[in-house]
Specification:
It is built from 18 helices and 7 strands. It is of the alpha/beta class.
Amino acid sequence: MKKMRANAAGIDIGAKHIFISVENKDVRVFETFTESFREASCYLLSEGIQTVAMEATGVYWIILYEILESAGLDVWLVDGRQTRQVPGRKTDVKDCQWIQQLHSHGLLNRCFVPDAQVKEVRAYQRLREDHLRTASMHVNHMQKSLIEMNIRLKEVLSQIHGASGLAIIEAILAGERDAQKLLSLCHSSIREKKASQVIKALSGYYTESGLFALGQAYSGYKFYKQQILACDQKLEEVMKRFNNYDSDMESKNEIDSVKDRKPVRHNKPDIDHLGGHLLKIFSGKDATCLPGITDYTWLQLYSEIGMELCKWPSEKHFTSWLGLSPGQHQSGKKNKTRNRKYRPKAGQIFRQIAQSLIESKKIALGAFGRRLKSKRGPGIATKATARKLAVLYWRLMVKGLDYTERGIKAYEEKMQLHRERWLVKTAKELGYELEQIPI
């Protein structure tokens, strides 16, 4: 095979050492300290290396990637599944040599690595998502401890971590046992509609172990709520810094003037004028005009993809990278199904939005998903709906194409027209002529 890159190197990264392979040179080993990374950078430059390939191994690659890139090297982060060797003996030395050979022949694909601005937003956003998952775990612990004492708040309140539920839990932990007094802490709508049910639910059997478990879960939940709030503050600081919010009065007025945004129902970040900040970053392109996308889901997509979607040449490249395009796994006459082991977080976000759209009753994409769900099942329907939404997002951000929601009625009329055309075509092929009967 013809070599495409003459001055290429391969790096295998471990927890304690990194192994660097340069063509026609012995493999060099460096430690994983920052000083050793700088020595490795100097070694590569001294050998005339211009491009380097390394595997995306956990989080070990991040600092080495930054140091090598700042030194002027063309760094390729590659998927570890692309560098698997043929069966045989495997060592770290052989791995880096194999990576170098593949990279010099142009057989590796570069992974998407966002710029520094998006990396910072991604760090805070992913940390926030981790805190949300842990906080929900503590909510489950609170429900469990209440049920162990036969306090059935879960059956009468929509969520025990709402304002009324937390007020009752705080009073119980403070020593209050009177059901009437606990009921008085609830919202007026609950007192009017569910008073008798709440009183029955609160007549439990209190135990020392159950109260201790409830207090532990409540403290953990409140702690992680504070952690989430701290992440929101850092995200707001980043948005203001990117948009010159404090120094540029024109930008500040432009961001503050944005109103009437889609409501965020769950886990809304405590960020002032989030929609205005995102509109400023994306130069006025508003992703919330697409169905199912709110300012919060737009923030999630921005933290995973960034704003330069032109890095993907077409919408097909974009949906393929997201893991939303149909795969091919053909062997002979068989087309086998093959699940991808890795799915980018951005693809998962589009899938979550698609699941909510399928449950909607007014959006055309939801009708498309339900029609496909009845034929192919929920998995394929969710994936296909997510792919359509991702295509719309790419077209909006790259080509600036607007989207107008025409509703389910327009979609059903379009499907009816397709069925009529198919029926006319089939009848013509069979030698029949159709005649419309007035109803």
